[in-house]
Amino acid sequence: MRPMTREEVRASIVNLGPTEKKVRLPAWFDDAPWHRIDYLGWRDMRAPKRAYLVTEADDQALGVLLRQAPNDAAHTSRALMCDLCRSTRRFNEVSLFTAQRPSRDKRERLNTLGLHLCTDLDCAVKMHTKPIRQTFDPLVDDIIATRREGMRSRTIAFIRSVSDAQRTTRRQR
Q1: What is the CA radius of gyration of the chain?
Q2: Residue 32: exposed, middle, or buried by beta-carbon count in 10 A (0-12, 13-18, 19+)?
Q3: pTM
């Protein structure tokens, strides 16, 4: 992913409500390892259930505001899979995050999309772990590149599905 400016990241969030205009960037933003990540994901330290997901496609920043749903303690023995990195982890390490679709119509304000994400939003670490490889498997670098490309395309698809609601609403009017 190419390095982004603070203004570019803030302007990329498509589903901010009128009361949510302040996007707080993480303290480590200036030290972000841009060459190793496929999306920039962080939690708002002042609002722990709020998270942000930003990536780039066609040399343009795309981002969404996410809200973490409460984990259901009744399913403590279940493993869940992150929808982006496709890692299977314990129930408390993967959470449901929802993104409200932007809309001017008050009736459509409840229109949301959700996905299961690693709670720490650090799928890049899992992408770079070396897989156990057999002699007939592709090279480790090829496996990691394939993983990263898959996660990147899933991230872009999710963010576009959230932001496309705004374009669809405008076309229908």
Answers
A1: 17
A2: middle
A3: 0.82
Domain boundaries, the chain: 6-172
Q: How far apart are CA 71 and CA 35, in angstroms?
A: 32
Spell out where 27-168 has E strands. 40-44, 47-57, 60-68, 79-81, 88-90, 94-100, 112-118
The DSSP code sequence of 94-134 is EEEEEEEPP-SSGGGTT-EEEEEEETT--HHHHHTSPPP--
* 39 vs 80: CA distance, rounded Å: 21
Q: pLDDT-derived band of residue 73, with 50, 70 and 90 as boundaries?
A: low
Two tokens, residue 129: 């772990």
For 19-49, what is each residue's pLDDT tens digit? 777 899 999 999 998 988 889 999 998 888 9
Q: Which residue has the tokens 């999309």?
A: 113
As a whole number of angstroms, the distance between CA 83 and CA 127 comes to 13
Closest CA to 108 of 31, 162, 29: 162
Greatest Cα-to-Cα distance within the chain, rounded to the nearest angstrom: 58
Tokens at residue 17, please? 């409500």
